Inverse folding.
């Protein structure tokens, strides 16, 4: 059962990694591009939009190339490309640069209890009790503000050795490398 739970968590992590949501355009910072930087994986391009106080807008994509950690925060580094327009919709210019953005992972769930009781037939001195199969499934959802869900998931994974942000970054980099190799076929 523990192996099944670990495989489920790995699968959930992979799905969450592919469904990343990036927080705040204002927190993006330019990073110097190095000639040895990993290639972005085009299949993972994520739409990015933003608006300015003066009515201008940005529309483009962010394509991740690598993951890292900074002060315990998971960061995605990749190419941000798009077009900047003014309030009237006229194009002011285009952007294509390497940036790093903090990453938030979609809410994760963990299975707390999966209890299956088979059919039951009792005959107690003339009192007959028939019970069909009962399947009780309790799932906790981890997310900000979900105190009980966060606590139960922490207890369920107490002995799992859940990955740190650095471990998650290494796992995501390995996935990016594999996807990059598949794209080159």
């Amino acid at each position: 059962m523990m192996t099944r739970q670990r495989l489920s968590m790995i699968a959930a992590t992979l799905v969450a990694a592919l469904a990343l949501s990036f927080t705040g355009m204002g927190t993006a910072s330019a990073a110097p591009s190095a000639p040895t930087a990993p290639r972005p994986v085009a299949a993972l391009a994520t739409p990015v939009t933003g608006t300015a106080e003066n009515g201008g807008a940005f529309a483009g994509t962010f394509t991740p190339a690598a993951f890292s950690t900074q002060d315990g925060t998971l960061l995605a580094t990749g190419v941000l490309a798009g077009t900047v327009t003014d309030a009237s919709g006229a194009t002011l210019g285009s952007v294509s640069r390497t940036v790093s953005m903090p990453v938030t992972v979609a809410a994760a769930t963990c299975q707390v209890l999966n209890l299956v009781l088979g059919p039951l037939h009792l005959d107690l001195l003339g009192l007959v009790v028939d019970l069909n199969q009962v399947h009780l499934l309790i799932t906790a959802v981890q997310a900000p503000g979900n105190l009980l869900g966060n606590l139960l998931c922490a207890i369920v994974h107490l002995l799992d050795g859940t990955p740190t942000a650095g471990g998650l970054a290494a796992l995501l980099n390995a996935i990016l490398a594999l996807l990059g190799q598949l794209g080159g076929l």
Notes: The chain is about 25% helix and 45% strand. The longest strand covers residues 57-70.
